[in-house]
Amino acid sequence: MKKIFKLLIFVLLITFSNSNIASAKITKNFYGYQVRNVNIRELTSEINTAINAYQGDDKFNPLEDVNNAYIYSDENCSYFVRLYPSNKDTNIYVVSNEKYDVEQNELTDLLKSGGYVFEKLDDKAALKEYKFDFFTLARNQELGNFYISPDLVKPLKTGMAKLNNHMAKDNKKTSVFPYSNDTEPIKLTQVDSITHYDNNAKISITQNEYRLKQKENKYVHAYEYIVTNKNNSTATVSATSERLASLKDVTTESFVDLDRLDLIDTVGSFPPVVVLTAGTSLLCSVPNWIRLAKITKESKRYTNSLPENYELRPQTNMRVLVLKYKNNPKPVKFNFKFADGTVHNITF
Hints:
Layout: H1 2-15, H2 19-22, E1 30-35, H3 40-53, E2 60-62, E3 69-73, E4 78-86, E5 89-96, H4 106-113, E6 118-120, H5 124-141, H6 154-168, E7 189-198, E8 203-211, E9 220-229, E10 235-241, H7 247-255, E11 264-268, E12 272-276, H8 288-300, E13 310-312, E14 316-325, E15 332-338, E16 343-347
Antiparallel strand pairs: 1-5, 1-6, 2-3, 3-4, 4-5, 7-8, 8-9, 9-14, 10-13, 10-15, 11-12, 15-16
């Protein structure tokens, strides 16, 4: 009870510290759509074509430094839109002010005019991830008339990030676990898949991206590389990457992720709209050691060292599992050496 009482007092102090925010209407204007049977690359291309062809005063403005993100604004409504891959479908996340009509708006009109089949997005894990992405983006990018209150634990997060980056300097990939060709099935939600085939090397690489189940999914996604040697000769395979997430990175960043203490955020234009972000985890938090154990168990599989001089026989494949930071996913650079002395490098 004492913890709950202190929490309520803290919320009230923050709320009434700003008269504008104190008088604002409490709301949660976060929406999602799923466009069926069209992947993000196809949908993004067609939406950009439609936006560029539009001649009216009001239009979607793409964000320069954020992939697949737009701001729509007119005299009645402003909203943020971002597209996310969802395997063979595409998810669209929307954050708006209180005047947004979720059933009929410029976005839904655009989708209907293109003949797309879409529905409400009910994937709670995806919506939770996209909401965290929006908060992070708004705080860092200052999205026009969308205002987000400061992150109350930013100094702690920033300090840990600097420590991780310092420890990782000049270290392409740190792991105490040697590479092994994992063959067990992956029981995670797949969000994207891309295949590249090199005609010269006769090497096929499929990159599959997955959403993790534990708290680390706010920062990293799991990636699976399936490398197939379609050559008649054995390939000696080595791989490197400029920066991947190690188990140390995942556990430290997830452990200090105290977003449950970000009690109040504001979203909107004028007046600002208060959005409460404190969930039940603030009052009924799982013991830290249990959370950390679950994160470690899930992430460990994807933090082995990259392969070095692995022998990949003709007409066989190997699997490489890694973790990549969502905000800056670095490619993996594969080096293939064949018995006849030829060397091929593929970055994917």
